[in-house]
Fold:
Amino acid sequence: MKIVICNDHGGLMLKQEIVLLLRELKVEVTDLGCHSRDSVDYPDYAVPAALQVAAGEADRGILICSTGIGMSIAANKVPGIRCALAHDVFSAKATRLHNDSNMLALGERVIGPGLAGEIVQVWLETEFTGGRHQHRIDKIADYEGSAISG
Structure:
């Protein structure tokens, strides 16, 4: 599996912890930054990561900022992206089972590295169940297509 990961200045420390975990899990990681605590604009990081996932250059993506909110909003503007904000293991699992999330947003100021690691691991290991949920994902994709063309 290939994961693209990025953060803004508010997610630097947690991103570093998650990159270590991903490498321990033998996951290929592309780190798009940022690499300091200097203030940056989260769309400048979230959108390029989302574009990589949408283009199939990465299987999934992980975004980290102070709350995860801004990153998830920015990523979800990219067609084909289903970025879920999760701060608990149950929600992370549900986003994969029912929503086929392809990006995960986390907030460094909301959760610590231990819980974040559990969330990431469950999110990576959980497969989409398809079935009745696929129809719902298809509706979202149809709407994306009509919003773009119309």
About this structure: Strands lie at 2-7, 28-31, 60-65, 83-85, 103-107. Helices lie at 12-24, 43-54, 69-75, 89-97, 113-125, 132-149.
